[in-house]
From TrEMBL:
<dbReference type="InterPro" id="IPR046465">
    <property type="entry name" value="BORCS6_C"/>
</dbReference>
<feature type="domain" description="BLOC-1-related complex subunit 6 C-terminal helix">
    <location>
        <begin position="29"/>
        <end position="123"/>
    </location>
</feature>
<protein>
    <recommendedName>
        <fullName>BLOC-1-related complex subunit 6 C-terminal helix domain-containing protein</fullName>
    </recommendedName>
</protein>
<dbReference type="InterPro" id="IPR019314">
    <property type="entry name" value="BORCS6"/>
</dbReference>
<dbReference type="Pfam" id="PF10157">
    <property type="entry name" value="BORCS6"/>
</dbReference>
<feature type="region of interest" description="Disordered">
    <location>
        <begin position="1"/>
        <end position="26"/>
    </location>
</feature>
<dbReference type="GO" id="GO:0032418">
    <property type="term" value="P:lysosome localization"/>
</dbReference>
<dbReference type="GO" id="GO:0099078">
    <property type="term" value="C:BORC complex"/>
</dbReference>
């Protein structure tokens, strides 16, 4: 069983036929058309590969920019959280100080109530006399 000729052997076979048979205008036209089509296909493939390369480069640049933006956002968020934690600590300290100050008011309030009761009792005695 014979094997079909490889694609590399096909042009050689055609070339050999041309030499054996002499110049055939149809064969030359076919070869010229094939060459033009091959060049056009090669040019389109080259353009597609350049376009793909540009798109991949743009995608890579966009990805790198996204990573930088993400990094900046994470850093800014961490800084904001740190600032908020610090401010919350200051607020808690102030609230505790205010609570201690308000705790001093309770005994004063009892003293004022006692003074008020004494004044009411004194007023009652003054009115009775």
């Amino acid at each position: 069983m014979s094997q079909p000729p490889s694609t590399l052997q096909e042009p050689r076979r055609l070339s050999g036929q041309l030499q054996n048979q002499g110049p055939d205008p149809d064969t030359y036209r076919l070869l010229a058309t094939l060459e033009v089509d091959a060049r056009a296909l090669s040019a389109r493939l080259d353009a597609l590969l350049h376009q793909l390369q540009n798109e991949l480069s743009d995608s890579s640049d966009s990805t790198q920019e996204s990573i930088v933006v993400f990094h900046d956002v994470v850093e800014a968020t961490c800084a904001s959280v740190d600032a908020m934690v610090e401010r919350t600590g200051v607020l808690v300290d102030r609230c505790e100080k205010l609570d201690r100050s308000l705790n001093l008011i309770h005994p004063l309030s009892h003293q004022i109530k006692g003074i008020k009761q004494a004044l009411v009792a004194l007023e009652a005695k003054v009115q009775v006399s």
